[in-house]
Amino acid sequence: MKEEALYIVIAKAIEQQIRNNVLKIGDKLPSIRTVKREYGVSMNTATRAFFELERKALIESRPQSGFYVSRHSRSRLPVPTTSNPSVLSHQEQAENLIDKVYRSLNDTSITRFSIGVPANELLPIAKLNKSLLQATRTLDGSGTAYEEIQGNFKLRRNIARWSFTWGGMLTADDLVTTAGAMNALSYCMMALAKKGDTIAVESPVYFGILQLAKSLGLEVLEIPTHPITGMELDALRKVLPSIKLCLVVSNFNNPLGSCMPEENKKALVNMLSEHEIPLIEDDLYGDVYFGENRPKPCKAFDKKGLVLWCGSVSKTLAPGYRVGWVAPGKFKEQVIRLKLLHAVSSTTLTQEVIGDFLENGRYEAHLRKMRRTLQANSLHFTRAIHDYFPEETRVSRPQGGFVLWVELNPNLNVPLLYDQAMRQKISIAPGRMFTLQNQFNNCMRLSYGLQWSDELEKKLAMLGSIAKKMIR
Amino acid sequence: MKEEALYIVIAKAIEQQIRNNVLKIGDKLPSIRTVKREYGVSMNTATRAFFELERKALIESRPQSGFYVSRHSRSRLPVPTTSNPSVLSHQEQAENLIDKVYRSLNDTSITRFSIGVPANELLPIAKLNKSLLQATRTLDGSGTAYEEIQGNFKLRRNIARWSFTWGGMLTADDLVTTAGAMNALSYCMMALAKKGDTIAVESPVYFGILQLAKSLGLEVLEIPTHPITGMELDALRKVLPSIKLCLVVSNFNNPLGSCMPEENKKALVNMLSEHEIPLIEDDLYGDVYFGENRPKPCKAFDKKGLVLWCGSVSKTLAPGYRVGWVAPGKFKEQVIRLKLLHAVSSTTLTQEVIGDFLENGRYEAHLRKMRRTLQANSLHFTRAIHDYFPEETRVSRPQGGFVLWVELNPNLNVPLLYDQAMRQKISIAPGRMFTLQNQFNNCMRLSYGLQWSDELEKKLAMLGSIAKKMIR
């Protein structure tokens, strides 16, 4: 991976000051000249750093005056607290909530802040259809034939090629395709653990992961997790002797939006390697980054083949295509065998379409556009939450992905808020869904993978006013 | 279901005499006049019965002489013996064989009698492509969106509608779609049994079922199975107290080609119901019947919701589409939940295509053609086996499906024959793959789902001559 340009380094340093509230909304920034002197860089570099911050809407220029921290910078709302899961499991309550929320997902009359996928408007549907037509011409039997068990070769080759964006050295042979990322996680868990084994996960974590682990009879250990830097490694270290495997959503975790810093990823992989503990890495949001570069996955630091790197295009191209994959390291044969036993092979057509899409550079072009839209959305959302939600609201700072984690007044019961919001045709994902413990009852996940509009702003305002009323 | 026409009943009676060797190849049949008198039917009905037998190539007319049992009637080769599985498990040997055979499946330079799917030439590829184009126009987001967890509604509605062919009273709500029939079996097994439970299956049985059950930690009980009438119910009755669930491929079982008579199906369902034992019914070949009507599945006799009826279009339309389904009876919620946990949903596009294909009557038209081709193929194959294989060869009598079960001299080692045949670019499926016991070492499964040609005939002749040499 290339070195970061100097102006980016500077922009990041200033951004950090804004995020840490060293620089507050409305504060005047040092002049470009000061930055030039302090960092020992050219005028040009200093200017570019400011432009970068402006592009990200963190600062705004005022004519004849200089640069100021913008109110879009989201620095007012503090980040949610690091989770501290207890040991009691309250499985049933979460399941009921999940069922309730899922039932709302097909009703298009509802504003679905609860949904975890991008809206149709964000997807390159016409271009995918072109690739589909192409695939019926290229494929043996127009895609009616069984695909190789390991998966469509064009798709695997292009995922391998694409891994250069994070310095990956994968080959087509390292990869196994699956019916989406959850399907990849399912094969990984089945390959690595048996009933009674313990799996360590982030907390909060995507409920599908929790429910899958429970359904396989695994014991789930929820590890305290920071809303910006992800799983707390010190907490994990303490339980290492008792766990069989670990699972992290390393980049733009759902529901927190957290992204483990590179050094944490390295440390995590090393720590687990020492104990020969496999790591399932769900990296399905990694391509949707708002920064300059794609964050590396833990897989980039895997020397022993212990990291099973999972991904999909369900969050970037086509959830309904059911195209995902895993680079299972040294567990490849087990994963292929499980795929053969449970599903024989993956859908031939949709794999070929995605393979083609990646090969022709359409994926990259699409992602560039999508990232810009999502970053703008995330800023719209945080600003609206700042404007309409109760004073003590905390909100996460995703640097990629689709979701925000909102922590409300500790006395506010979000499952009740869910019911009230649904009466206004607004659906949210209550925090309680993302844990097997009795926690996060005052939290919610909001998806900003929706087309921004005045209507959406109104719905967020309504949500905020419901919350305010409930506190009173 | 409609009553069988009288001429069919008569044709079947005569067919039975041919199959039981009461009438042998070259035997002259009674005259049409005699049949008219004996059965007390019109001349027209008697004539139609003979035409029916002639259509099936069981008899042939000789000018000015009458009708004779044709050499296509396959009556010379006796049917294979009823299986008698022992209790010892020899898992590893079967796995190695399966791996070996699977590796040959992508090599198109090999004549693959080992393959379990129809050749491209038998599939309605152009028409499927039309439905695909239609689906991109009909579907929300051209099929990029997640489908309902339970499955595409159009597909479910049309499978339900189609169930009228066997007197089924299913509704769309009774069905859950899956990524093919094996995927349906996987959810069913996971929903019904846990590690250590015992499952009763036919013997021989499709190896995927055996391997899946073992991988889930189930104990597999192989029940003696007759090559024409399927699982021996008396043998099953004896082990009922020890089994948790039962699985049958009721219609044109793979690899035997057996089809349980209706009264056996009824008896099986009743027997299991008394003990509240669920029955997983894999009915993926039922639509490919050679007779007048589709044989009913066990599901038709299910009063308690204990039968989980599974199917797919992998053997009739498009293996690579990964479209299958299950009507899980009273276990529906468990199955839906497992689908959600392991795969979230099925591929939207291919489900819609198949739903459309069924809705527009294209499926029926296609099946009519395919059945004729496959029946003709089955006769070509049996005739060729009769002509080229060793004297003591036994062969099954499939009345539908794609596969023949061939039993050779007890001293002949078919796994060795496999290796020799592969040197001639011929691949077969050794019988040993279809059991966890040490049996069927002198058996093989041959698929006739291939386009018949002189080339194929030559390959069968080569196979026969290899077998003859090995016996000498």
From TrEMBL, chains A, B:
It comes from the Bacteria. The keyword Transcription regulation applies. Keywords: Aminotransferase, DNA-binding, Pyridoxal phosphate, Transcription, Transcription regulation, Transferase. Residues 4-72 form the HTH gntR-type domain. Pfam families: Aminotran_1_2, GntR. PROSITE patterns: HTH_GNTR. The keyword DNA-binding applies. CDD domains: AAT_like (cd00609), WHTH_GntR (cd07377). One of its GO terms (molecular function) is pyridoxal phosphate binding. In the C-terminal section; belongs to the class-I pyridoxal-phosphate-dependent aminotransferase family. This is Transcriptional regulator, GntR family with aminotransferase domain. It comes from Sphingobacterium sp. (strain 21).
